[in-house]
Design brief:
Jelly Rolls; alpha+beta; globular; 13% helix
Length: 327
Amino acid sequence: MPEMWKHRFDFPMFYFYNIESETHPFEGQAFIAAQVLSEVLKRYQYSVSEQPVELEDFVFETDQERYFWPKGNPRFDPKKNISFKQVTRDGKTIGGLSINTGSPFLFLSNSFFWYPYRPQGASLPGYTAFFLQHVPDWSYQDGIHNQMIRNLICAPEVLQKRRAIIMVKAPFMNGGGFPPLPRYLSEHAGSISMEKTLDFLDPAIKNLDNDSFLFTKGKDGLTYFIRNNDKKRAAKQFEIELTIPPCKDKTTCMIRINFGELSQITLSVHDAADGSAIDTTSMINGKNLHSDLFIPVPDSGRKVRVEFLPFFPENAISVKNIELWYY
């Protein structure tokens, strides 16, 4: 924070000042955070890129309000698009980075490291690449929860040969009782086991407000759900409710929802008793056929509600089944 305060006038925007509901940092904060972080990472051994990692001006041309300068600052015209620095190497943007190129540095984060524009390398990991002259790895996942759990519990191999792991921790994210250290996960991930498989239309799963979406069983064994357009106010999401039974000597359940086809959808799970948020995940890029939610489970079990929010609710989404894993 002292460095942020010191450089607060060096950048026109540390945050999206013109969008009150926007909490993500913009170029200023990402740039200064990367500068400070790089001084720490320079303590470790790493190879310098053969081609120089450089900064270039980039103008995001769009009609979206957030990419125009806010009113009130005489230095910037609110009618013009915001410009920021992108990160390039060998004349090409470094983009969103890869998950496992062999770099000793791994970023684990959600969208709080994404801005101002990840596809152009304009991000906290991207700016770190510029200061280090070394392109790190980045495991990215949308969602509000500490992404370390989701990215590592079933893939501890991504930790191998790392010298430093950098994770995002936004103020509204709570640990939810999950192990805080990657080392713990890498040592215990082998103990995770699948204990139960449920059909999406199993009596144990209660569909809430099921007149908003129609559910049908296909000949292929998949359950299809599609928005009910006959309803006056068709919802964009729907919920299911189920009770997570306890499992001996294991305190966390991973609900794995297997889809029948690539889907773009956000899933969130809440405690059914008090409505508190437990975990969220998004299949933004539609690369996987499953999505995982992590839930601490007491000895008495826990009743939860899972919300499905398709990016394109008018399209049919197919679900194969729901698996309950424990560790």
